[in-house]
Specification:
binds guanosine-5'-triphosphate, 2 domains, Rossmann fold, 11 helices, eight-stranded mixed sheet, 289 residues, binds magnesium ion
């Protein structure tokens, strides 16, 4: 596991005179998970501009790096549509931080956006998952639509939509099971929820949001590919960005898949969710710890 930030590793390099600077820089960029295409582009641009290892060269490199990363990153704001029942269908493999992120989103939408929220426990695979969401619902004072463990997740979403429509709730946030055996399995499991939701919620008010774990690096890119192929992902939340020096994978995903990032998770508490701000993201990635 890489403990130092990308910024810290690059800074050190400029203090050591041996070996080919650009080769070493490229290696650090690749290990930082920003993706080979972006790393190549940065190295090409800097070859033309960076002459040595002086402090001014290092500062210039950081400038180039920052502007290339910023230009590659895709971001989006998640703004609920007025006068409609909105649905956020939250996707992601086991343990990435889905349920915690749902609780944070609920808190954010209520406190910052003054929206009414309803949670849907469509991760029916494990009884504990339903209970965990119910506990959050109670803590937040937000209703939770649930059925028996093992129930059809599509039926839970159907119920949640009916309830939200009857009670004029602004936003439904639905938890889903994170099992990812293969794409066919995902398509089957999520496809049904997607059809039920798509038929009842206007397209602009229905968003599929993937949660990825910043600590997992390349694996997160593969997850994004699989979920995007299976059901189409509207935006991604980068969870656990506080507990790792990694997180460069957001750049690779932006580059390869073009899926925009909407929020980042920066801790385990309810308020530890921030709209995905390019500069805040890059400050963390390039900070020298
Ligand atoms: N440091 C940190 N921890 C987080 C963050 N988001 C979630 N976690 C932790 O990650 C762990 C897993 O979170 P869950 O929300 O249960 O993840 P999940 O994807 O719902 O997991 P399953 O339902 O068990 O598959 C918990 O210990 C959370 O507190 C974050 O942004 N930062
Ligand atoms: Mg969960």
């Amino acid at each position: 596991m890489i403990r130092k930030t990308l910024g810290a590793r690059i800074r050190e390099l400029f203090g050591r005179p041996e070996l080919d600077l650009f080769e070493e820089l490229e290696e650090i960029l690749i290990e930082g998970d920003i993706g080979p295409a972006t790393a190549d582009r940065i190295i090409e641009t800097s070859r033309a501009e960076i002459r040595g290892r002086a402090g001014s060269d290092r500062d210039r490199f950081f400038q180039l790096l920052r502007s290339q990363l910023s230009g590659t990153l895709r971001t989006v704001t998640l703004e609920p549509v007025e006068g409609a029942v909105n649905l956020l269908l939250v996707l992601g493999v086991n343990g990435v931080g889905k349920t915690t992120t749902i609780a944070k989103l609920a808190e954010y939408l209520r406190r910052q956006r003054r929206k009414s929220v309803l949670l849907a426990a469509a991760d029916t695979f494990r009884a504990a998952a339903v209970d965990q969401l119910a506990v959050w619902g109670k803590r937040l004072g937000v209703p939770v639509v649930r059925q028996e463990p093992g129930a059809d997740p599509g039926a839970v979403v159907f119920d949640a939509i009916s309830s939200a429509q009857a009670n004029r709730v602004d936003v439904i946030i639905a938890d889903t099971a994170g099992r990812m055996h293969n794409k066919a399995h995902l398509v089957k499991e999520l496809g049904k929820i997607d059809r039920i939701a798509g038929g009842r919620i206007p397209a602009e008010a229905y968003k599929k949001i993937l949660v990825i774990d910043a600590t997992t690096g390349q694996n997160a890119l593969r997850q994004a590919e699989v979920f995007h192929d299976a059901v189409g992902v509207d935006s991604i939340i980068l969870a656990k960005y506080d507990s790792t020096a990694k997180g460069g994978i957001a750049v690779a995903i932006s580059q390869d898949l073009g899926i925009p990032f909407s929020f980042m998770g920066v801790g385990e508490k309810l308020e530890d969710l921030e709209p995905f701000d390019r500069e805040a993201y890059l400050d963390r990635l390039l900070e020298v710890r």
